[in-house]
Amino acid sequence: MADAVSDHTVPQGWASYTESEHQVWRTLYERQTAMLPSLACAEYLAGLEKLDFASGIPEFGALSDRLAALTGWRVVAVPGLVPDAVFFEHLANRRFPAGRFIRGADQLDYLQEPDVFHDVFGHVPMLTDPVFADYMQAYGQGGMRALGLGRLHNLARLYWYTVEFGLLRAAEGLRIYGAGIVSSATESRYALNDPRPIREEFDLERVMRTPYKIDDVQALYFVVPSLQALLDATVNTDFAPLYERLGDAVELPLP
Ligand code: HBI
Ligand code: FE
Question: Angle between the 185-193 and 19-35 helix axes, to the nearest 10 degrees?
Answer without folding.
Answer: 10
